[in-house]
Amino acid sequence: MKNILLVFFLMCLNFSFYAQFDSLQVYKIVTENKTYYGKIKKDDGREVLVNTKEIGTIYISKRLITSISPYNENLDGTSKSSEYEHPSDFKYFTSFSSRSLEKGRNLIQINLWGPELHFGLGKGFVFSFLSTWIASPFGIGIKKTYLEKNPHWKISSGLLFGTMGYWNSFKGNAGMVYLNSTYSKERFQVTANVATSFFKSGFEMEYTSLYKETIYDPNVLEDFVSEYYLNAKYQRGFEPAYYFNLSGLFKITPKFSLFIDVINSLAQVTQPKEYIEGKSLYYNDMNNYTFKSEDLEKKYRYTGIFQPGFRYLYSESSAFQLSISVLKTGDVEPIPIPQVAWIIRL
Q1: How many CB atoms lie within 10 A of CB 60?
Q2: Strand 204-215 versus strand 275-277 pairing type
Q3: CB-based contact 268:299 (threshold 8 Å)
Q4: Domains detected in the chain
Q5: Which residues of the chain have pLDDT under 50?
Q6: Model's pTM, two decimal places?
């Protein structure tokens, strides 16, 4: 009997959960005397609280209502099926979608490490500013969306430029060019992204190599090979990287969504060779040695970031999201990093 009651309770709970009106959806409410368009804020079974465009928030008795149906426009008259369904659809966690922002519809994403500001300029253009809380490093970006009138397909291209800022006397810089495409329906959207970038840290790096020198002694039949570890400094120049990202957003309920952000990169890394052959070095030379260009080699390093998470829309202009970022690079074991962000329309 307890099991039957439990199943009945869960069924009722499930029904009540899905029977709720979507507070982000505009409804057409037809009464005996008039038709209203607005967002339903509350329904207690006897009357509904509606936020209408014409006369503001009102209560309407259910005895007077003949029908309630979703209306395919927002309160401001823009199409509900357009790309402006919710501001947070503009991004996943790290990657951008191909969606744009209307002119004047600006966003701020507050991350644990710092804020992101995104400004809708109109005609598919968005300007972005990204920074840490100490304002170093920071970056700017510009993005252009194409096929804006297509309800399902969007394409966008963009540029990002960043600097290490005062942290390294503006010696470190990075840039990225990307192209992505988003396909969206009512309850999901997926995005594929390709990009190329360059990066220069500006920091002087240190590395330890095994230095081998061959010493010829005419009194010995075989040459003598001396090996010792050499710790020295070197400068890394501009290093290119290539990206391929896949992202998806899946709307489980009107307010609750699951997302996934998968970032793959292949970066060219400059570092000293593991074994260096050279001439004899005096002790003072060893202490002040700087790796030369012939001592360096270029390698490619793969980095993968897997970011599953969820997003909760707690108002028509605000959202909260939580993610676990799993980072894998080189021979380092995968590192899970919790990520939290708030998205607010300004």
Answers
A1: 19
A2: parallel
A3: yes
A4: 2-70 (2.30.30.520), 87-207+240-272+297-345 (2.40.160.40)
A5: 1-20, 74-84, 282-284
A6: 0.70
